[in-house]
Amino acid sequence: MAWTRFSQAAGGRARPVALLGLAQTLSWGSSFYLPAVLAHPMASDLGLPPPTVYLAFSGALVVSAAVGPAAGRAIDRLGGRPVLMACNGIFALGLVLLAMAQGPWGLFAAWALLGVAMGAGLYEAAFATLVKLYGQAARNPITGITLIAGFASTVGWPLSAWLLGQHGWRGACLGWAALHLLVGLPLNALLPRADPAAVPPPSPAGAAAPAPAGATTAAPPVQPAAATPQRALVALLSLFFAVSMFIGTAWATHLPQLLQSVGATLAVAIGVGALVGPAQVAGRVLEFSFLRRVHPLLSARLSSLAHPLGIVALLLLGAPAAALFAVLHGAGNGILTIAKGTLPLVLFGAQGYGARQGWLMMPARVAQASAPFVFGLALDRWGRGALWLSGALGLVAFAALMAIRLRHDPATDAQPPPR
């Protein structure tokens, strides 16, 4: 029954969503979430300080930013299936090279190759794949894959830890490489082939878009384009994504220390931190079930306020508000992950989505790469005062979204947004 309801809500596209969601879970678990478990044993075995491993990982994020636009253009031309299949091979090769590393040069080279795979094989590529297949009707499928892949850390961290205990960190990397070839590659190979003519040309403002190939004939009209000039719109969205991803990565890295700064014990901080993942999934369920009926810009505005509200609670109440903060922060971050895919779709349209997504996310990837180091400096220097910086940045992200104007106010527009 649950699968039937999901399939109906996704417009009959549940199978591709499930394939992409499972493949994304593997890709995130074997790359972005890998250092949390393997960084320290990796550094110890290579005779390097742990920050060196994290620096190599930051380098991978910078490489992924550079690769993003080219990967997006390839998906616009060819569809996501061949690009994502190639990424499984690159992931596997990068993980094998990481397992063979004997010093810093091998470490950085392996992470650079993994950065190529991350730039062409994580959420932005999956979103572009769905837009190539379904055009303006891709909003619900985008939400669907984030619902599944939202458990990447829940699955990835225990699996990495088990592989580490059984085979060491090198064996863990080889195990993940094998999973890319034996599981990820077949999953992506089962995706539908994209029709080169699947994405329709942009419709005039206020007009209904023709249904893309593979979409249902009852697709709702396309939301009119933004009234904000396009250059300003690109700048505002880039700023929003960069600030949001900086905050998310900073807190993912320093959450226990930040909660301790308001009086929580280490045990409480770790326990509260465990609430963030489920809250992210809960936020995505909320978006999929209720907020999908409103314009994505409105849901993104509401969710961008969650982090600053959580910061206010921490500053006013201290440690007793830690659990409330984790729920607000996690739920907001979960919805904002979906906004990375849906906002560019409804504001710019489906034409050229992949390349545009790559350019929009380039500053965000660089900000994400700098977040652990930059926010760590702020935390060391200011302690509890770093919360003010985090809250202020959250308000900057909210202000960037509020500066975007549509031809019709999303809060009052009678037309439902594309799904």
Automatic annotation (TrEMBL):
Primary location: membrane
Transmembrane segments: 53-71, 83-102, 108-130, 142-163, 169-191, 232-252, 258-283, 304-328, 385-404
Pfam families linked to this entry: MFS_1
A single cellular component GO annotation: plasma membrane
UniProt-recorded Gene Ontology molecular function terms: transmembrane transporter activity
Keyword Cell membrane: yes
Coiled coil: none
Low complexity bias (residue ranges): 205-222
Keyword Iron in annotation: no
Cross-referenced SUPFAM superfamilies: MFS general substrate transporter
UniProt-annotated stretches for the region Disordered: 201-222
Subcellular location: Cell membrane
InterPro entries tied to this protein: MFS, MFS_dom, MFS_Efflux_Transporters, MFS_trans_sf
Domain of life from the UniProt record: Bacteria
Keyword annotations from UniProtKB, A to Z: Cell membrane, Membrane, Transmembrane, Transmembrane helix
Membrane topology qualifier: Multi-pass membrane protein
The Major facilitator superfamily (MFS) profile domain, residue ranges: 16-409
Name assigned to this protein: MFS transporter
Organism: Pseudaquabacterium pictum
